[in-house]
Each structure stands twice: as C-alpha cells, then as structure tokens.
Amino acid sequence: MPIATVNPANGETLKTYEAMGVEEVERRLQLAEATFRTYRTTSYAERASLLSRAADLLDEDQGEIGAVMTTEMGKPVVQARAEAAKCARAMRWYAERAEALLADELPGENDVRDSGASRVLVRYRPLGPVLAVMPWNFPLWQVVRFAAPALMAGNVGLLKHASNVPQTALYLEDLFHRAGHPEGCFQTLLVGAGAVDEILRDDRVKAATLTGSEPAGRAVASTAGEMVKKTVLELGGSDPFVVMPSADLDRAVETAVTARVQNNGQSCIAAKRFIVHADVHDAFAERFARGMRELRVGDPALEDTQVGPLATEQGRADLEELVDDARRGGATVLCGGERPEGPGWFYPPTVLTGVTREMRIHREEAFGPVATLYRAADLDEAVLIANDSPFGLSSNVWTRDADEVDRFVRDIEAGGVFFNGMTASHPAFPFGGVKRSGYGRELSGHGIREFCNITTVWHGA
C-alpha cells in the first residue's frame, strides 16, 4: 500500500509520501537510543509537565486534526473531534497518576525477614525504545493509549502508523515536539509494512506493541519471540451483544445501533454479533433493523452524518464478500446488503439473520456496519453462541437479573464484560483480549507496567 492520503468519501488521492530510506531509519534509531539515555532519568514531574502541555495543544488543535482524520479515513467529523478530546483526557490522566501507578512496592515485613533481607522493594524501570505498529481506524487514540503511559514510564516511542493516515502520523510526532519533548522522544517512521520486521530485530528496539489484524499480530509476535522481546497485541474482535428478557429493550436497541456503527463499523470493540433471547428476539430484530435503516449515511465532513464510508476500497470489498457468502448460504438480509451507486467506499448499515456456523461471517470479523443476529433459546445457548468465535476482545450483556450477571461474568470468554451499556475504552480500566484477540493489556496501571523492567531490589541484613 502506498503511503498516501486518499479521501475515502470520493477516492481522490490528496497527498503522497516517499517511504523513509534505510539511512533515515537508522538515524532515527540512533536518536531514539541516545534520547532514552537521558529521558529515562527525568522526573515524573518533568514528564507530566510535557504530557500535559501536549494535551493542551491537542485540545487547541481539535478541529484541525479532526478534519484530517475525517479526510484520511472517513470518520464522521463529530466522532473525530471526540477522539481528539478523548486523547487529551487520557494524556492528563497518565500525567496525574503515573508516579503513583509506578511507585515502589514494598513486600510484607514477614516475607522480607524470611528472605534474609533488611529491606526489599520492587521498582518499575523503563525498557527503552518501544516500536508501536498502529492501525488507521482510531488514528489518534490507538497511538496515544500507548504513547501516554510509555512516555510517562520513561520509555521513548517509535511509531509505524498505517500507510493511509500519514498526515495523522506526522501530526503526532509534531505534537510531542511542540510540547517540548526532547528530540527523539517520539518519532514517526514513514515506512511500509515490509520494514517492520527489520526494525523490530534491531537490538536498540526493546519491545513492541501492535493493534491490527491477526496476520500482522502473528508476524510481529513471531519476530519478537525469535528476538526474545516483549510484545502487547490487540487484534481483531467479533464482540457479542447479548439481550436477555429482563433487559430494557428500548435502551438495548438504541445502544445496539450505536455499538455496531460507531466509527463506520470499523472498530475492534464494536458489537458485531447480536444474540437475543427467543422471548424478545422478534421485537428486538424489528426495532434494530429499523434503527439501522434510518441512519444518515453520507459525507463524513457534514455535522449530521452518522455513518461515513469505509476507509479503504479493499475493506469494502472484503465486507461485501462476507455478506454475499452469507446470502448464498441462506442468510436473510433485514436491511442493507447492497453497495450504493456513486463515488466513495460507502456500504449501508446491514442486518443479517439466519446465520449459521458454516458461513464465513460467523467466524470472521466483519469490519464495517454489518450486524449478524442470532436467536438463543436460553442463557446457556446465549453463552455458547457468544463463545463460538476465535476472538475474545470484549462483550456486551443486557440483563437486570443478578444471577445472570454472575453467569456471564464467569462464562463469557473475553477481556471485558459490559452490562447494560456499550463497550468503551477508558484510561482507568485495563483493555485487551484473549484467544485470537491478542494478549497483554493497555491502559490503567496494567498498561503502563507492560513496558517496564519490574526490578527486585534486595538489601542484605
């Protein structure tokens, strides 16, 4: 894929970039290593001041960078501005809390005496340059949720962003530079996917984090395993959205529509499989299909647009293949399912029912505004359907029954279970998945410690 800004609303190529050569990548790796030697010794107060300044600048730039994201990947502009605001809040969250999250830990006195020590502590120390391989769907947020904790921990960042959001990638480097971070503290590498392996093999790169597809995650994990380097992977998701009879059906339907089409349906944590108890299935299906049908699809630069185009032409083609395969297998299309006429990579909000295990869409992630609807006879079948997926990122459950809550928490295979609401990420709570959705955690104290050298400091008696 060329490194270029291509407007998905009309297919027009607006700006192209040359990939950095070997010499420029080498210069930046040297700079990252040199900067880390001194940045690692800065105080939490110094780092917090820099990150807070970056947050202030991002707030000032909200309209400008929101428009860039909309142009580069088709995100509705209201959602783009909200993403920028969310990133600024996360920066401040880590600026205010990192020192406490990484404070020295003191084991119990009895354990210290038992070890023969006079004093023991556990200290969190930074690792060094961390490579971040990031996707286009949340081009600011995916990066900031890595960068904010990593920089506060004393690491430095190397960003390999998706090739279709180069302006956003360059903006991020410039943002941290304008905030006063030392040169080399956060750098964007404008390179293609083929360059990642060699960069990750470089001894100066100490760890890597990737958000993206399962094949990309496998490639990074394989190389990192060979080189014995720490990785955090957040891969695909096909999150279940379970509705039980005790649910507030009106709220469940309203939230289901938003959960499926947020970010034009291109979100790993978007609800994708809607599993509805037989007692309320038909009522839910009718209201859900109507809500999806009534969404305003159009130019993402307009304030009232709810669903814009898919980010890439190939992405739309992949989504169409999943829907067509399901239709050939006997699935019923309740709404949508046909590519519209005209320019741009638009695809209508679509609801499929009668999906079976043999259909590709049952086991593959539908990265776009396409929902699959299942009927569950009881709680046991709802859990079985929910877990019948290679992914386990997050999940949504609608019930007001306390016993059912306990069962779903115990039995759903996912990194999160959200009751009576929509899955969302927040800096205070760990984020990540199980199964083929990846491993490790981002955000919260768990996320900031992922790229730390957890060091036991033992003093003899």
From TrEMBL:
Membrane-spanning segments: none
Name assigned to this protein: NADP-dependent succinic semialdehyde dehydrogenase
CDD domains xrefs: ALDH_SSADH1_GabD1
Organism: Streptomyces tropicalis
Domain of life: Bacteria
One Pfam short name: Aldedh
Domain Aldehyde dehydrogenase: 3-457
Gene3D superfamilies the record matches: Aldehyde Dehydrogenase, Chain A, domain 1 (3.40.605.10), Aldehyde Dehydrogenase, Chain A, domain 2 (3.40.309.10)
Cross-referenced PROSITE patterns: ALDEHYDE_DEHYDR_CYS
Keywords: NADP, Oxidoreductase
UniProt similarity note: Belongs to the aldehyde dehydrogenase family.
Species lineage: Bacteria, Bacillati, Actinomycetota, Actinomycetes, Kitasatosporales
Keyword Oxidoreductase part of the UniProt annotation: yes
Keyword flag Oxidoreductase: yes
InterPro entries: Ald_DH/histidinol_DH, Ald_DH_C, Ald_DH_CS_CYS, Ald_DH_N, Aldehyde_DH_dom, ALDH_GabD1-like, GABD/Sad-like
